[in-house]
Amino acid sequence: MEFTLLWAALTGVFFAWGGTRLWPEGLPDHATDRMVGAAAAGLFMGRLVAMTLQGTNPLTHPGDILVIRGGVHTAAATVGALGVYLWAVKGQIRFLDATAAAAVLGLAGWHAGCLWRNTCLGAASDLPWAWSLPSSTITRHPVEIYAALGLIAAAFIVARLPIRTLLRTGAGFALASLVLLLTEPLRLTIKGGLEPWYIAGIAAGVVVVTLGGRAVRSAPIHTT
Predict the structure, then answer these.
(1) How would you class 217 by CB atoms within 10 Å of its CB: exposed for 0-12, middle for 13-18, buried for 19 or more?
(2) Cross-strand bridge partners of residue 131
(3) What's the whole-model pTM score?
(4) What does the mean pLDDT of the chain come to?
(5) Partner of 166 for a Cys bridge, out of 53, 117, 143, 212, CB 3.0 to 4.6 A?
């Protein structure tokens, strides 16, 4: 693993840790460790799926698994991270809501880590805050900084929601996907953007919020 990628990952961990300090309500013990472990497992799963779709057999090319910059399947990584996290908290759904804001903040940190990797820039721009690479005269949008700032705002919005069945989780999914969808057109890509995945993320978040709301309304009211 290249060191710049490691520093970017550590920036995400630091932001997630900060989120657990800002919003500690309802968190499980060792909340940051659980999030980092789940994220690492999700990253591993997403890398395996990406390799397979690219025609590379992970069993015969195990060294390529570490080349994260070669591609990570977003959906597989997300599903893997959620599955591992739920396993780590023994299937207690309430911990998803308690962790949602810190997880979104950690994602913001990962995008802000572009400063270490020199990968912040996207489409060309003449805006006053655009900047260029050292070897170029073309100024570009700092699109990953846009994403980081949007995700920070999303994390604070999620943190203001009550902790109840899947409300914060669904809102976190929807808002994070919305931020990435809005910034995706400014990214430089050869294979095409990830807009369909982000639209699916928004839809999934809305469905989760809706189902969570129905579960709360249908729950029996206990009186003393």
Answers:
(1) exposed
(2) 140
(3) 0.84
(4) 85
(5) 212
143-165 pLDDT, tens per residue?
999 999 999 999 999 999 988 77
Segments in the chain below pLDDT 70: 1-3, 66-72, 74, 190-192, 213-224
Burial class (CB in 10 A: 0-12, 13-18, 19+), 221: exposed
Which residue in this structure is represented by tokens 């993320």? Answer: 201
- The string of DSSP codes covering the chain is --HHHHHHHHHHHHHHHHHHHH--TTPPTTHHHHHHHHHHHHHHHHHHHHHHHTT--TTT-GGGGG-GGG---HHHHHHHHHHHHHHHTTT-THHHHHHHHHHHHHHHHHHHTHHHHT----SB--STT-B--TT----B--HHHHHHHHHHHHHHHHHTS---TTHHHHHHHHHHHHHHHHHGGGS--SS---HHHHHHHHHHHHHHHHHHHHHHHHSPPP--
What are the CB-based long-range contacts (under 8 Å, 24+) for 29-37?
31/98, 31/99, 31/102, 32/102, 34/85, 34/88, 34/89, 34/99, 35/85, 35/99, 35/102, 35/103, 35/106, 37/84, 37/88
Buried b (16+ CB within 10 A) or exposed e, 183-212: bbebbeeeeeebeebbeebbebbeebbeeb
